[in-house]
## 1
Amino acid sequence: MKPCLADVNVLLPLLVRHHEHHARAMRWFDSLAAGEAALCRFVQLALIRLLGNGAVMGVYVLPASSAWKLIAELMEDERLEFATEPALLDEILPDLLKYAVPTGKLVADAYLAGFSVAAKMRLATFDKGCRQFRGVDLELLQLP
């Protein structure tokens, strides 16, 4: 099966046991074979930012160094690999950034969509908004 790029909205609940979507993220992760999922630098940094955000993590907030270690531990799992930015991304991304008001979320979604297309990967996400990007092989995870 074609490998998939994991969105931060999948990996955060995977890492955080008390997250409301942890069980669903775990079911997805448990269904993967070795090397079937990937994490890119953009998602890695977003995870560090969110794991250190008190509004997101509450009393479970982590310092950046602890978040880095938690992600490094996850990366030891054979199902997950680190994906470097594909060369074709610079050709694909501009066509995905055609917004009158490019919000941070839209730019982030466009980046991950472009990355997945350029790398010939699926994009695993809970975000239904990613359906707007043509040519993306989307693995839309369902929420209860």
## 2
Amino acid sequence: MKFRCSPVTVRKRSGGIAAAVLRSHAVPAGLLGLFLFAAPAAAADILVLDGGTLVVGKRTVRLWGIEAPTATQTCVTTTGRVWPCGARARDELRSAIRDEEVVCRPKARGLDVCRVAGLDIGALLVKEGLARARDDYQELEARARSARAGLWE
């Protein structure tokens, strides 16, 4: 049986401790009207692995619609300068979620849309030129390319 769970809400407190609250309404495939409720998760830290991946408690959350560089990846500008694009994307994601409430909702299998103060953080990374667009963010990537931002320098 397959289950679809949503959403994940993470409230960050100052001091770096996060209280994770999972409000899951799981519906077994093929059984309409039957709802299973998961218990709220205990307090957990948010770990940012790279510009496109978070770990909330024991759950790995990959951001939908983007392809971010790995944390150790370097990029080369059109002028030949090498820069740590992976570390910069990771740091931008850390900065975006610092001391804020993060709400993640599944969009596709294994991929979530995560928001901070209503702002889609995947879209933010694409807009800043720190991730490539895979789906709805093509226009944001085109703007970042024309502005020669981030990966498009």
## 3
Amino acid sequence: MSDFLSLVTEKLGVDAGTAQAATGGLMSALKDKLPSGDFSELTSKIPDLAGLAEAGAESSSGGGLLGGLTGAASSLMGGGSGAGGLLGTLVGSGLDAGKVGPFIQTFIGFVKDKAGDGLVDKLKSSLPDLGKLLD
């Protein structure tokens, strides 16, 4: 298990499968929203996250039961884009809605520790809806 997944399971008290699905969903959203150079910078500085992005893209693209549930939750939470879409993706992965803010905070803190403030600023500017989920 990657360092980030271990941190999420410990800090938020979720199982490894939920942590992996939520991280994959977030990474898939970042891959879609970030300029490719910024996403490459993120995955080069934190290589464990690259594989999670691919897994997240597969599960949210409609393949299998998880893809269907993720899509349904995303639709219920406001569609496929913006804060509602990301919230739906995270909740559809099995993450409790009350843990979405702490999950995002944990992710941002982890990226800051591993890759620095500059990359965190790029993440926030490319995906400004992240801030809406921190409350």
